[in-house]
Amino acid sequence: MGNDIRTIEVKPSKDTMIKAGELVDVVEVTPLTLTDRKIYNLLIDNADKDIAKPVEHSIDKEKLQLSRRGNERIDDTIERLMGGIAKIKTIRNGESATLRVQLLGRNIEHTRKDGKFYYTFDPILREVFSDSTVFARLKTDVMLSFNGKYALALYEMTAKRINMRKTEEIFSITEFRNLLNVPKGKLKTWNNFKSFAIDPAVAEVNQLATDFRVEINGIKQGRSFVEIEMKWWRTAPDGEESAINELTYSKTGRKARREGTTEEIILPSTELKHLLTDQAQENARKILMKGHNRMGLQNAIQQWEEAFSNKERPDNPNGAFIAFCKKIA
To answer: Is the pTM of the predicted complex or chain greater than 0.70?
Structure first.
C-alpha cells in the first residue's frame, strides 16, 4: 500500500460523500434501480468512518425517503440490496481476481415511518472498505439530482478518475456496458447503446456535475465499434456556474433545457429543501415530534414545497419552513 491514503481516512466535506473506488467500478450481478443506487450511497455516507468496523449502523428512515411513495419503496430497495451481488476487481495472492459479495447485510427497522433503520455490511465488504486507497468524492446534492441510472453510474466513474494523472481510459464495449450496469439482453446494438445509454448519461452528467466534464467516443475496427474511449477534465468557472444553477432549478423541464428544445423559462423552483440549513431542519424535526400529528420531516418538507408550488420563493426559507411546521404540528 506504501504511502497511499486509505479511503476511510479521507474526510468528506459538508456537501460531499466519499465512496470507495471498488464500489464505483463495480458490476451488479443483480441490476439496481436509480433509487437503489442513491439509497445505497446514503447508507455508505451515513456509516462514515465506522464503515469498516464490525458495528451496526443506524439512520433515520426519513432520510432515505427520496420520493412521495414512502416506506414501501424503501422496503423494496433494501430487499434488492440484500439480494444483490456485486462483482469487484481485486488482487488475491498477487494475481487479479474477482470478488463476489453481498451489498447489504443483516438489518432491522422500526415499523413507524419516522423510526430508525439499522443495518450492517458483509465482513468481506468491510475488508474492501478497509483496504481501499482509491475513492470518488461525490457531491450529495448532485448525486440525488440524477434522473437516469446510467448517468449516476457515469458520474461516479468520472468522480473516481478526476484526480488521476491520466485524463482518458479505454474500455471494451462489454466492460463499459457492465460498469454502467446495462441489463443483459438490453441495448445490444451499438446505436441503441449509444442513443439510449451513453448519450443521455453524458448529457446529464455534463449538465449537473459542478466541477468536471466527460466525453465518450466509440472506437471502430473496420466497420464495427469494438472499444470505448472515456475522457474527462475539470470545468472552467463558467461551466461550473451553469451546473450549480441547474441544481437550483426544478427537475421539470431539465431534459428540454439540456437538449435545447425549448426556450429557457425558469420558474421559481418548488424544490425548496436545498435552501434549508441543517440547523433549520433539526429545529423543525423537534417541533414536528412534539406536535399531535408526529409528522415526519420529509413529509413536512413535501407539504411545504406543495404549498409554495404557485407562489414566489420565500425570502427567508428557514423561517418560512419553521413557521409552516409550527402550523401543521
So the answer is: yes
